Amino acid sequence: MCLAAPARVISVEGKIAHVDYGGVRTTARLDTLSEPVEPGDYILIHTGFAIQRLSPEDGRETLALFDELTASLEPHRPEDEGDPPERPSGVG
Amino acid sequence: MSAPFRLADPARARALAEAIRLLAPPEPVKIVHVCGTHEVAIAHNGLRRLLPETVTILEGPGCPVCVTPASDIDAAVAIAKSGAVVCSFGDMMRVPGGRISLEQARSEGCDIRTVLSAKDAVKEARETKKEVVFFAVGFETTAPMTAAIVLDDPPDNLSVLASHKLIPPAMAALLELPDHGIAGYLAPGHVSTIIGTGPYRRWLDRYDIPVVIGGFEPLDILYALALILRQIADSAPKVENAYPRAVDAPGNPAALKLIEEVFEVRDAAWRGIGTIPSSGLELRAAFAGIDARRRFNLPEAGPDPEIPGCRCPDVLTARAVPSDCPLFAKRCTPLTPVGPCMVGAEGACSIWFRYGERINP
How far is CA B2 from CA A6, B191, B286, in A? Predict the structure, then answer.
């Protein structure tokens, strides 16, 4: 029910955007969106209405967040901590 | 899914699963999400099998059609029986009301149509002289669309049967139940796109529980779970946004303004849970003219039917998983659903059946 999928904006006519979901073309209403959109932008669409403008850079920033977390939890190296435990000792 | 937003690479999934293993405490942790779309992503991608045995994740009241009380379905059926056209989202069709479902009403000759969007109901109304009623269910993600059609000069023969519900009050209600055992919430990404982070603070701060907003790609969900476990490990519960590419802290101002303009908050009945204070939306008095509850003679709201043996109430309150129910995948299947959670496409039982999901004790 809260399913929403990103689509690329092809053109904008007033409060309607023509969009492309990776090959499937449809329209989306824009009156549920706070910011203007332009052709080439990505928008998140829920039941035929845009709810958020997305940028591909944000997708890359998200990956950087994931990597930051996993890097922060890598088991300590022997030279830092003396003898390593047999297994990583739980909470990082 | 458009390519720039597909976040599913196996190396990162393994790294995040390892992070979860490192962060998970030795004692059991029960994490609850409230979104059928999250459950589909978890089951479809097999994410439960990446979690340590101590970490469980359950769907609570995350399926709007499952929590719609039978009395609202009875109202839609009564409207249809009066000769009006009822437009409904497809997964509402087979959910049992007090007596029959919308689908059964259709088989008795009623004109009930499936729509994919509120705007489709407007289109149906423009193409007929009959009364048309949009049965408006859904959480904060969907309510702005109903508000948009109400404000957009709708045709005179269109009215709205509003049954929208609000998620943060339901998350708080679950924490009031004895023995809820919930250690953290994975909050729904697209509800949060609309409402932002504020309502979670207002409703949940006093419970000192981790609340992490998560997206719907497999990596989004693993990342959000890791952040929940980190908050637990640090004893630092707070509201955290793990889906910043689609959720801004203030939410979506245009959508919030639409909701505020058209609806007012009221207490609402949730199937399987009961009445939750300030958890529903009804049309403001200024829109009485388009309110189907005023336009039609509706039956007195009755209680939800008790279904012997069905554990939907426990599934909807995250006190059981579908495979705990003695009827699951035996008497109750998507072809022969007994309870609402096996009907709604986002109901936990329907999803678990579809993907063969199980938790073995």
Answer: 6, 21, 41
Q: Is residue A87 part of a domain?
A: no
ipTM higher than threshold 0.85: yes
Indicate the pairing of strand A49-54 with strand A42-46.
antiparallel
* Span B164-188, pLDDT tens digits: 999 999 999 999 999 999 999 999 9
**B190 contact residues in A (CB cutoff 8 A):** 2-4, 44, 46, 51
Q: Which of A54, A62, A92 sits opposite B23 (nearest CB)?
A: A92
Instruction: Decide if A69 and B245 are in contact by the 8 Å CB cutoff.
Output: no
Report helix, strand or coil for B97. Answer: coil
Share of chain B above pLDDT 70, in %: 98
Confidence (pTM): 0.93
pLDDT digits (tens, 9 = 90+) for A42-75: 999 999 999 999 988 888 888 899 999 999 987 6
Which CATH number is associated with domain B68-167+251-295?
3.40.50.11740
Distance of CA B61 to the CA centre of its chain: 6
Domain of A45 in residue numbering reads as 5-71
Contact B83, B109 (CB under 8 A): no
Count of domains observed in chain A: 1
Residues of A in contact with B215 (CB under 8 A): 62
CA distance A11 to chain B (A): 17
Tokens standing for residue A23: 């090959």
Written as six digits, the tokens of B51 are 């979690």
The domain that holds A63 is classified in CATH as 2.30.30.140
For residue A36, being part of any structural domain is answered with yes
